[in-house]
Amino acid sequence: MTEIIPQEIIENKIYFIREQKIMLDMDLAKLYEVETKVLVQAVKRNMDRFPEDFMFQLNIQEFRHLRSQFVTSSWGGRRYPPFVFTEQGVAMLSTVLKSQRAIHVNIAIIRTFVKLRQMLASNAQLARKVKSLENKYDEQFKVVFEAIYSLMDTNEIKKSRKIGFNRE
Questions:
Q1: Which end of the chain offers a freer environment for a tag, N or C, measured as fewer CB atoms within 10 Å?
Q2: Residues 153, 141: Cα–Cα separation, whole Å
Q3: Strand, coil or helix: what is 59?
Q4: Fold held by 7-123
Q5: What is the pLDDT of residues 120-146, one digit of tens each?
Q6: Percentage of the chain modeled with pLDDT above 70
């Protein structure tokens, strides 16, 4: 079966908030091809299926911060912060939204979460192997290991070199 939604599209809709990977209600509604209010109503009718580790509502500061990350405003006139769903919450949505599309979209989303988790695990494994090699070898390889760590560090801000003459 061909993918109903390309994995890259789903990956771009996963955010990291409160140290959890989450998806916004409006992004999920678009993927399921339902209105956001329909999704939220279905969830509210079944709140006992969505404990806080499955779904929660962003607070005002989180909402403002997230909204400020979008260059164009696709948020419309939303009056309340969105609900967000963890991987478990997305899985639970298939029991609330009973369409065939919801089932296939959930499968695609869960596969994407699993792929991201595997990528993070393999990066941690690589870091452990590099650290063990670093401990085995002496100072002559220190520069090599520093270069490897800088390549692995996704949070490092690249330093730009100034071009031109420098007066001392």
A1: C
A2: 19
A3: coil
A4: Mlu1-box Binding Protein; DNA-binding Domain (3.10.260)
A5: 777 777 777 777 776 666 665 666 667
A6: 75
